[in-house]
User: What shape does this take?
Amino acid sequence: MKKFIIIFLLFISFFAKAQDKIGITEEDYQNSGVEMADKMRSEGKIYVLVSIIGIVLGGILVYVIQTDTKISGLEKKYND
Assistant: This one.
């Protein structure tokens, strides 16, 4: 039964398309700005986004440091 399912899924994957190809034009090469970033920067939202990313990464860093100190303490107790 598993063989039939695998063969069926493999057969379907040959005919599936993720997306259509879009041709690259000369205008694409001349595009030097990113609309989303420019709009967020003009409205001041980019700074909120950067601060949230900083807070999340800072929280992960604090968690890793605390975990490391706890593990170091357990290693000292185990070795003694």
Remarks:
- The chain has four helices and no strands.
